């Protein structure tokens, strides 16, 4: 398992190896000791799974407010996505910047999005399934988001607004400039 740091502090790209033969393959997709050596102490408490039927489905940009903020370890088990993380930790040298990574069942990579980031993705194939581990339980009262196409963030999504399939909640989310300070950065 290879774990690489990305341009935004705390964001990690996890690349598990696969050992294959004529029967198929085996992969160690998560190992706490190696993961925590790169990410620090992390405790995952819930696994989530989503299925998006159509290419161009956008989910996000989501976060949970403190004290129920979530870190997420995201991977694709069928299809492909462009996975997006946006740093919204006030005081961070990368505040408001984002990273977009392609995750697919084929490339087998995973993205760790720590608390203090927005997270969202766009499906690149029909019938895409995404699974992710989270560091806190879902809380409806702490559930929040920022508009997927906020020009202040400038994500270059792989679909146009007309092609994007969105929930009303995501389509009508506030801009980053409208949510106030949600998280503080600590080095």
Instruction: Record the strand order, biggest sheet.
Output: 1-2-11-7-13-5
Major sheet = 6 strands, antiparallel
Which percent range describes the beta-strand content? 35-45%
Total number of helices: 2
Mean pLDDT comes to: 97
Structural class: mainly beta
Topology order in helix (H) and strand (E) letters: EEEEHEEEEEEEEEEHE
- How far apart the termini lie comes to 26 Å
Number of strands: 15
Global morphology: globular
Helical coverage, percent range? under 10%
Radius of gyration: 16 Å
Unreliable spans are none
Structure commentary:
With 187 residues, the protein is mainly beta. It has helices spanning 32-39, 168-171; strands at 2-5, 12-15, 18-21, 24-27, 46-52, 58-64, 72-78, 80-87, 89-90, 98-104, 110-113, 117-123, 128-134, 143-145, 183-184. Helices cover 6% and strands 41% of the residues. The longest helix is centred in the first third of the chain and has 8 residues, at 32-39. The mean pLDDT is 97.
Provide keyphrases for this structure.
single chain, 187 residues, mainly beta, 6% helix
Question: Quick summary of this structure?
Answer:
The chain is mostly beta strands and 187 residues long.
SSE blueprint and pairings:
Elements: E1 2-5, E2 12-15, E3 18-21, E4 24-27, H1 32-39, E5 46-52, E6 58-64, E7 72-78, E8 80-87, E9 89-90, E10 98-104, E11 110-113, E12 117-123, E13 128-134, E14 143-145, H2 168-171, E15 183-184
Parallel strand pairs: 9-15
Antiparallel strand pairs: 1-2, 2-11, 3-4, 5-13, 6-12, 6-14, 7-11, 7-13, 8-10, 8-12
């Amino acid at each position: 398992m290879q774990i690489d740091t990305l341009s935004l502090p705390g964001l990690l790209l996890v690349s598990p190896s696969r050992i294959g033969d004529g029967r198929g393959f085996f992969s160690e997709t998560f190992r706490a000791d190696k993961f925590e050596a790169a990410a620090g102490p992390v405790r995952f408490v819930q696994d989530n799974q989503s299925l998006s039927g159509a290419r161009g489905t956008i989910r996000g940009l989501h976060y949970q407010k403190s004290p129920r903020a979530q870190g997420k370890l995201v991977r694709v088990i069928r299809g492909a996505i462009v996975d997006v993380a946006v740093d919204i930790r006030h005081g961070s040298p990368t505040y408001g910047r984002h990273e977009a990574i392609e995750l697919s069942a084929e490339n087998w990579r995973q993205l760790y999005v720590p608390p203090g980031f927005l997270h969202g993705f766009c499906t690149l194939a029909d019938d895409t399934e995404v699974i992710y581990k989270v560091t806190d339980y879902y809380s409806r009262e702490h559930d929040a988001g920022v508009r997927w196409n906020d020009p202040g963030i400038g994500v270059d999504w792989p679909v146009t607004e007309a092609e994007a399939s969105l929930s009303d909640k995501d389509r009508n989310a506030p801009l980053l400039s409208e949510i106030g300070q949600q998280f503080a950065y600590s080095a």
